[in-house]
Amino acid sequence: MVIDLHHMRHALRLADRALGTVAPNPAVGCVIVSADGLVVGRGWTAHGGRPHGETVALAQAGEAARGGTAYVTLEPCAHQGQTPPCATALIGAGVARVVAAAEDPDPRVHGKGFAMLQEAGIKVEIGPCGAEATELNAGFFKRVRQCRPLVTLKIAQSLDGKTATSSGQSKWITGEAARVYGHLLRARSDAVLVGIGTALIDDPELTCRVPGLEDRSPVRVVLDTRLRLNEWSKLAQSANQTPTLVFTTAEDGGNLAACGVEVVKAARDFRGRPDAAAVLAELGKRGITRLLVEGGASVHATFLDRGLADRLEIFSSPMVLGAAGQNGVESLAAMTLGEAPRFKLTGVRKLGPDLLESFAAED
After folding, report:
1. Structure confidence by residue, pLDDT tens digits, 268-312
2. pTM, whole model, 2 decimals?
């Protein structure tokens, strides 16, 4: 029904607010509509994953939820965690109908939430805005099904695909609007990753510095084969405020731990560097569902070569740097055209003078 789509889109907009703040939980939105058609409760997963969106919306609705409809972007949970199951809360609130966009892939829930509701005599409908709900929680789905986070590569480049001049100058290829949007991508991610080359050259903070979103900085991750990150770097000096992980194959942990940096011994790939798949598996174990990879060129090439890049966010500036400029992606492994990583365009956005093109890996 049209009204179901309307309310579910409302719930999806609410869920979107939680991205980057709820890992390892999904970002869920809920809208409670009373029996006479009024919106009486709204909620989304709170910071840290508790309380769930349904709990917040039901608390707002109170007795007005009885006999009404709950619109939820993901199947209500059916297991006892830090809080009682949301399916139980919906039953107790006396709703007559639950409309859910998608089924939860978590085996602790998968179909069980719907079954609990139906056994209590609640009408259940599944599917409105299902594709949108699945995309919104693609990171959660990826972690549950493949035990790793969704990986997005972010590249800021010139029109001819260069990310820096021949001397390494890269600040700033893109304009202010594009840079602000890049910070929003960080706010919507659970972790942000760079290679040691980027960490040494740029000495980045890798935090979210959009006014009002400073508390949404993701976990910082550095791939550092020989443990060259300096204890006086911005990353190390701020590690007690923003969690920072360094994956290395070196034996000596250095002085980083004293700064609050967690040094993680990683399995080696064929080049002796931290193995990308093993790093993702470890991040998945830690509850990371969405990983933003910000470079450099060698790191981007590694994720593309291994088929581990799920999304691309390409910011293009209207300038040309020429052949001497530095590439955003190093040479990939020898391959035919048929073996090359392929992506489909999912969105285009103009940001001041720059253009952002978003891509998703082809299935």
Report:
1. 998 899 999 999 999 999 999 999 999 889 999 999 999 999 999
2. 0.94
| pLDDT tens, position by position, 91-104 | 999 999 999 999 99
| Catalytic-residue membership of 119 | no
Q: What's the start-to-end Cα distance of the chain, in Å?
A: 30
Give whole-number Cα distances, 278 to 221, 225, 269, in Å.
14, 14, 9
Q: How far is CA 245 from the centre of its chain?
A: 17
Q: Show Cβ contacts of residue 218 under 8 Å, excluding neighbours closer than 6 positions.
A: 20, 186, 187, 189, 190, 191, 192, 206, 208, 292
Residue in the structure block whose two tokens are 């103009």: 350
Interacting residues of 316 by C-beta distance below 8 A, sequence separation 6+ = 157, 158, 159, 354, 355, 356, 357
- DSSP bridge partners of 162: 327
Residue listed under structure tokens 């006014």: 211
Amino acid at 65: A
Tokens of 340: 């090359």
Length of the chain: 363
Name the active-site residue from 54, 282, 294, 313: 54
251: its two tokens: 């034996």
Q: Which of 23, 18, 110 is nearest to 284 (CA)?
A: 23
